Amino acid sequence: MTELNIKKEIGKRILEARKAKGLTLKALGELAGGLKQTRLTNWEQGVRTPGPEEIKSLARALDVSPAYLMCLSDDIQIKTVKNPTHLVPLLTHQAFDTQAYNSLVRNQDPSNLMFVSVSTLLLPELSNEAFALKIVNESMTPEIRVSDIIIIDPLTLPKPGDYVVVKVKMQKEVIICQYKKLSYTSSEFELLTLNDTWPNIKVSDCGAVEIIGVVVQNIRNYH
């Protein structure tokens, strides 16, 4: 096989493996350690060939063997272990409406979204509906601060003491509260804010608020 044909075959295998995992170029680049989309495009088109370390990063992200990507073997060797990272979409106003959120994630081109990488080792039960949200208010300071990024799972049922993302009727923004069950025999619960300048919410009518999901992780940058 000539050098040109090898480049084309390597590019073809990268493209096929990416499509098999349902990844966009942007998502693959993030999973592979921050590779630029232009480099990935050049590799897939056979214009250039990735180096050894780049091949290893791509193989880990695509769950295939480096030898397969380099055309040294026809054995794909898909790993059976779970990928150590999981990408969740970083949402803003879409998270205010769960129906809009579901429509966005399922129907929109993922390349138009930003993603946050989380560890599947730390969060092994994270559902495919999980998403990230950047904090814009002070309802839960000092525990959760403005600019923190929280990971939310809409399929996790809240337990007493959990932090939850809440949409209050007639309010434009979601807030973060702590879930408190008021009785074992009734459906009443209270949503507590840690910031004393923010009101708590006592809920007897479930239609007044919507619990969008449970906070399962908080990511904070100190610089």
From TrEMBL:
Sorted alphabetically, the keyword list is:
DNA-binding, Transcription, Transcription regulation
- Matching InterPro entries: Cro/C1-type_HTH, Lambda_DNA-bd_dom_sf, LexA-like, LexA/Signal_pep-like_sf, Peptidase_S24_S26A/B/C
The cross-references to CDD domains, in alphabetical order and at most eight, read: HTH_XRE, S24_LexA-like
Residue limits of the HTH cro/C1-type domain? Answer: 14-69
Keyword DNA-binding set for record: yes
What Gene3D superfamilies does the annotation carry?
lambda repressor-like DNA-binding domains, Umud Fragment, subunit A
GO MF annotation list: DNA binding
Pfam families linked to this entry: HTH_3 (PF01381), Peptidase_S24 (PF00717)
Task: Report if keyword Transcription regulation is assigned.
Answer: yes
Q: What is this protein called?
A: Phage repressor
Native source organism of the sequence: Legionella pneumophila
